[in-house]
Amino acid sequence: MRRDLGVALIGYGFMGRAHSNAYRQVGSFFDVDHQPVLKLACGRKEAEVAAFADRWGYESHVTDWRDAVARDDIDLVDICVPNNLHAEIAVAAAEAGKMVLCEKPLAMSVAEGRRMIAAVEGAGVPNLVSFNYRRVPAVALAKRLIDEGRLGRIFHYRAQFLQDWTISPDVPQGGAATWRLDANAAGSGVTGDLLAHCIDTAMWQNGPITAANAMTETFIKTRVHAETGREQPVGIDDACTFFCRFRNGSLGSFESTRYARGHKARYTFEINGEAASIRWNLEDLHRLEWSDHSDEGAVRGWRSVHVTDHGGEHPYMDHWWVPGLQVGYAETFVHQIADFLAAIRKGEPCSPTFREALETQKVCEAVLDSAGSGQWTEIPTG
Ligand code: SOE
Fold it and tell me: Which CATH class is domain 3-132?
């Protein structure tokens, strides 16, 4: 008999939809002890949040997140609002004894992230930061192959996250869909929004980053603010490129921009080891490319593994259709909730916890510091 898990969703934009879909799907595809029940959707605009709640099957809606946090029938508070609101809501939710799921990046700063960690750990509540790309089956398979030592000693980790949606100077900053361009709401630009994904995946697969050397650029210096209607300075980084060192001795190179014409969400990584290399591309997310030096010379080369097999061969895929039929972006969020519920059942943390996500926040902060100073910046330990 499944127990109900009352969910309050704060924020109903693109991520609110991705998470809502996951709560609705998870119990149908995964064996879970807790069945998410969509109790409450919260957003500032009454008519819009009411329509969202109706469409996605939430039992009720509110316009003040404090009402969500106060309710006894809420077990889990899911934060899908702009980054500058994460900390206040997460701390209040944890203090009210709720489990907390927070969209990435964890916080506006490392200092703010530490306060959030103190709250969830002080309250002893399960917590998770939504770095969903870890839960792409091909990306999880890459992690498994690395952990099995199949790449041997790792020399290089390189990642890119390329988009082109802010090239026009007419795109405003601030407002519902464009808060990511407003430094007051987002904290940073591509570093916190896109590179945070790459850094999270990279450290999960290849261990801690110890130092970084970065450059950033803001190509369009002023934009109209959607809330004030005035042309205002742009405070975010439009593009960021950095080199880094990993603790295991390998070298990293990372690049992200919203000015790569033709690219909508091209997240790629490639890892080169002594024995083999792997690479992955979000645009073809169900494939993992693999080149193994131990293959017979005449046929040695890159193979493209269609990550859809059953029998435990390919992470998560036993839960879906039949071998050969793939899953996509939406399912990464289903996997995330499935893993979170499995961890609750076992009484274990689910990665990345707030504490683990702070490591990504530290790298993002060091990257921005380095871009400002032009110097290498060490990533603080502890
Ligand atoms: C920005 O366009 C964005 O939606 C990010 O906020 C997401 O985290 C990323 O997965 C896709 O791009």
Answer: alpha beta
